[in-house]
Amino acid sequence: MDITAVFGEIVTLFIMAFALGMDAFSVGLGMGLIKLRLRQIFYIGITIGIFHVWMPLSGIVIGRFLSDQFGTIASIIGGVLLLLLGIQMFVSSFRKEEEPMITPVGFGLFIFALSVSLDSFSVGLSLGIYRVHTVFAILMFGFVSMILTWIGLLLGRRVKDWIGAYSEALGGSILFAFGIKLLLPI
């Protein structure tokens, strides 16, 4: 195997992993604006990393059998989930209770990780068609998204202290805007 071809594939996969991880970073930044402990941030990063392994792997397997049309459906579902999470965070920021209606714990963490990683399913579909090195690709996607999620959550946690009571409304607005971006690709 040609070393330049291998290096080119590694660089290409890293760029794709970084692009997919930026979704996790952006959403993590918004979600970091709610009150989270460091242990929760750790588990959220691990969970999103796992989803960014599982979703493209599923996409790669299915992509070897299906057309590109299915990838659009995954983006729509991810966009709708982010819209709903954003609305929920925004509305709960005006409630008297301290806890948001959906938190990134338990089932809420599952919804959060699923909404962030659905676009990696779409990428997996296309990678399955091109017969990429599956194990390397999914491990890189998982690792990069986990690191970027942690960075986003920790940065959001810092920003929360600066903007105080409006942090959850801002976080919800970020998630909502990101959901619109997925639904209306520009």
TrEMBL record:
<keyword id="KW-0464">Manganese</keyword>
<comment type="similarity">
    <text>Belongs to the MntP (TC 9.B.29) family.</text>
</comment>
<feature type="transmembrane region" description="Helical">
    <location>
        <begin position="163"/>
        <end position="184"/>
    </location>
</feature>
<feature type="transmembrane region" description="Helical">
    <location>
        <begin position="106"/>
        <end position="129"/>
    </location>
</feature>
<feature type="transmembrane region" description="Helical">
    <location>
        <begin position="6"/>
        <end position="29"/>
    </location>
</feature>
<feature type="transmembrane region" description="Helical">
    <location>
        <begin position="135"/>
        <end position="156"/>
    </location>
</feature>
<dbReference type="Pfam" id="PF02659">
    <property type="entry name" value="Mntp"/>
</dbReference>
<protein>
    <recommendedName>
        <fullName>Putative manganese efflux pump MntP</fullName>
    </recommendedName>
</protein>
<feature type="transmembrane region" description="Helical">
    <location>
        <begin position="72"/>
        <end position="94"/>
    </location>
</feature>
<keyword id="KW-0813">Transport</keyword>
<keyword id="KW-1133">Transmembrane helix</keyword>
<keyword id="KW-0812">Transmembrane</keyword>
<feature type="transmembrane region" description="Helical">
    <location>
        <begin position="41"/>
        <end position="66"/>
    </location>
</feature>
<comment type="function">
    <text>Probably functions as a manganese efflux pump.</text>
</comment>
<keyword id="KW-0472">Membrane</keyword>
<keyword id="KW-1003">Cell membrane</keyword>
<keyword id="KW-0406">Ion transport</keyword>
<dbReference type="InterPro" id="IPR022929">
    <property type="entry name" value="Put_MntP"/>
</dbReference>
<dbReference type="InterPro" id="IPR003810">
    <property type="entry name" value="Mntp/YtaF"/>
</dbReference>
